């Protein structure tokens, strides 16, 4: 399998357009939260309608997993905790989402919601405890906030990660944790898009404006992870000990050549103007 990982698109529609086009080149698209943008001038209810349409198109092309981020919270539970009720409703599109754990071959994928209080946090603890009994060789968590005290959550002056997630990683040692949330981590001194905590690889895609988004691709069979950003293409060996810096991509794989050729629909000339 080959996973495409994105996060923090924040209702940037050109990035969603790219994701629709790129999805066919991957067996699984993992969206690690913050599809919406609470700071946008577009009402969040309208954003949900549009993002749901994009997700339905992507889900028709490949398998999709989606966790909530802090910008995706649109409601409150009966107990008063913030939740992303719209994300739970995308299950009807065949998308794995908050609270789900699914098995795909030798992959166990656990999708964690954003937690805003003790009840949702306790539900994640139960979810992880239940999943560990059936974990496959490759157990991957999707959790919007990265673990604290790691370069993947470094914001330049302090860490912005989740201390509870760090405790869960220490306890269960999954194969991999996929996150976003701290946009600048991969681009600043002492930050990074990858780290290793015990036997667990942890990732943060980071965020840049424009098209395409920053993204990570994981190839479990080749034991490689790639990170692609504007003017940057790096990879690490998942079988090797943690080493920094990551290696530059010198020989692009076929899937990277393919997604690099995806045209920007706003820049493509109409047929009548082609000559």
Question: Which characteristics define this entry?
Answer:
seven-stranded mixed beta sheet, 15 strands, 275 residues, alpha/beta
Describe the protein's architecture and organization.
A hairpin with a 5-residue loop joins strand 4 and strand 5 (about 80-85). Helix 1 packs parallel to helix 2 (about 45-60). The strands form 3 sheets. Strands 3-2-1-12-13-14-15 form a 7-stranded mixed beta sheet, covered by helices on one side. It has a 6-stranded mixed beta sheet with strand order 6-7-8-9-11-10, covered by helices on one side. Strands 4-5 form a two-stranded antiparallel sheet. The protein contains 6 helices and 15 strands. The protein is about 25% helix and about 25% strand. It has about 280 residues and is α/β, with parallel strands linked by helices. The chain is globular.
């Amino acid at each position: 399998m080959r996973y495409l990982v994105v996060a923090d698109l924040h209702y940037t529609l050109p990035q969603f357009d790219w994701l629709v086009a790129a999805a066919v080149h991957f067996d699984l698209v993992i969206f690690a939260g913050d599809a919406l943008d609470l700071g946008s001038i577009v009402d969040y209810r309208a954003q949900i309608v549009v993002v749901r349409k994009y997700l339905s198109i992507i889900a028709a092309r490949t398998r999709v997993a989606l966790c909530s981020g802090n910008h995706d919270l649109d409601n409150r539970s009966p107990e008063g905790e913030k939740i992303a009720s719209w994300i739970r409703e995308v299950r009807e599109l065949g998308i794995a989402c908050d609270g789900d754990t699914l098995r795909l071959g030798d992959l166990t994928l656990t999708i964690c919601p954003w937690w805003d209080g003790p009840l949702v946090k306790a539900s994640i603890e139960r979810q992880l405890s239940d999943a560990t009994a059936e974990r496959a060789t490759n157990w991957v968590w999707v959790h919007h906030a990265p673990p604290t005290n790691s370069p993947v959550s470094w914001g330049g002056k302090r860490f912005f990660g989740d201390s509870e997630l760090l405790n869960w990683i220490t306890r269960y040692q999954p194969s991999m944790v996929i996150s976003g949330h701290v946009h600048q981590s991969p681009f600043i001194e002492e930050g990074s898009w990858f780290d290793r905590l015990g036997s667990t690889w942890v990732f943060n895609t980071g965020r840049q404006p424009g098209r395409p988004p920053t993204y990570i691709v994981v190839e479990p069979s080749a034991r490689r992870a790639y990170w692609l950003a504007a003017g940057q293409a790096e990879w690490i060996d998942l079988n090797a000990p943690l080493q920094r810096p990551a290696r530059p991509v010198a020989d692009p794989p076929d899937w990277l050549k393919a997604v690099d050729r995806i045209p920007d629909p706003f820049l493509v000339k109409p047929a009548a103007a082609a000559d």
